[in-house]
Design goal:
alpha+beta, 4 helices, single chain, about 35% helix, globular, about 110 residues, five-stranded antiparallel sheet
């Protein structure tokens, strides 16, 4: 299943540059990458335009976001990563309380058109 999620970075050029450095190949802690894969996330990509982030996430049939959240909450490496990332991130104004990444709703697919 493919999911598209949105998040904003704080509008600070130095902070945005640091955030990108943390996400460069080889800079994300191995334990964080392992936790993503162990949850059944097959692929994850993050794109940026200005301070807006778009995450594309491809999940397998056994992916359970609640189980992932529980596992992350018990993993000190993931907690440390999320604490660090919180310095740069801010939820969208429309985000549900207590969430950072906001799920999107697909409203168009070329394949659905005649």
């Amino acid at each position: 299943m493919q999911q598209v999620l949105l998040l904003d970075l704080k509008d600070d050029p130095a902070g945005i540059a640091e955030y990108e450095r943390w996400h460069a190949a080889g800079n994300v802690p191995a334990a964080v990458t392992a936790s993503i894969r162990a949850a059944g996330i097959r692929d994850m990509r993050i794109f940026r335009a200005g301070n807006r982030l778009v995450m594309l996430m491809e999940t397998g049939p056994h992916y359970d976001p609640a189980a992932k959240a529980a596992s992350d909450g018990a993993n000190p490496d993931v907690i440390a990563w999320e604490t660090l990332m919180n310095r740069f991130q801010q939820a969208l104004p429309c985000a549900k309380p207590g969430t950072k990444w906001t799920e999107t709703t697909q409203i168009y697919a070329l394949s659905d058109q005649g």
